[in-house]
Amino acid sequence: MASTILTKSLLGHRLIHSSFSLSHKTPQIFTSLFPGRTFQKRADPIHTSYKPSQWVRCVVGTRANFSTQSLSLNEPVVSVDWLHANLREPDMKVLDASWYMPDEQRNPIQEYQVAHIPGALFFDVDGIADQTTNLPHMLPSEEAFAAAVSALGIENKDGLVVYDGKGIFSAARVWWMFRVFGHEKVWVLDGGLPRWRASGYDVESSASGDAILKASAASEAIEKVYQGQTVGPITYQTKFQPHLVWTLEQVKSNIEDRTHQHVDARSKARFDGAAPEPRKGIKSGHVPGSKCIPFAQLLDSSQTLLPADELKKRFDQEGISLKSPVVTSCGTGVTACILALGLHRLGKSDVAVYDGSWTEWGANPETPVDSS
Asked: Residue ranges of region Disordered (predicted)?
């Protein structure tokens, strides 16, 4: 399970302290905190600047006079221009929540070390997860989430902006996770890190001791909770919202009850059963009665969320009514959250996500499956 990615922070602190004493002229490779992952470590943060276009310079020249307190909770994304203008607001934290499919062979922690938005924390999607299941990155318990988030230094009063390295992908998952645990002041960065860099804004390249230690501490806290050990101090308080997360049994009941419209974010080929699932031992097809809206259809070519009118057309085309409840699913509960993000822009803030999604459903020999 990917929750073992991070190791004990005390040992990591000693290793980092030793490594940081070396000359910054000779980049070091270290793997002690994150087994199986290789990092290019530099002693000092390096900022990379890109020449902004003319329209970007106009935005940079006029700093916004408001903080996350004034952002609408009905709008789930913020622009890179807004974030750049408000990056140093004291009531805001930025999270790099990058995660990639295994076949992409991309290392999110290594990419964070190479280039991230200045001051961003790293949120490990695979690590901050339920350790009692073989299903990937499932929602952790309230206690485990509170312990990990406390270790990252996040407080209930903070406004959070979450981004990822693809545009809008895994950031939507972390946006949903925080909402499940009662944190309302959370937004996704529209277009993510690619949009940030294309707009000419600085990135930071460093193996920051503080960021690495916080990520390690979050992993250690998760492990302690699931091992029944004492964790502290826990400064973040959760308020679980059960209506935002569904189980296999709820999905099974919904096949008959039809209380919720079920929308699947996977590709049409996987939904129809024409393409094999990427994970072994998983049946092909879809939950009976569900409909398919591939998550990519909610994004434009720059991986930003479509305007509300275009989003509505996508859901209208599949007969999804905004007046009726919706539950979304995908392969492992990541891109289903992009559907929830789009529906949130349309005013539906109560969309449930089936956490286990097709990896759980398709692996169960007793669950019904349809194919087209």
From this structure: 262-286
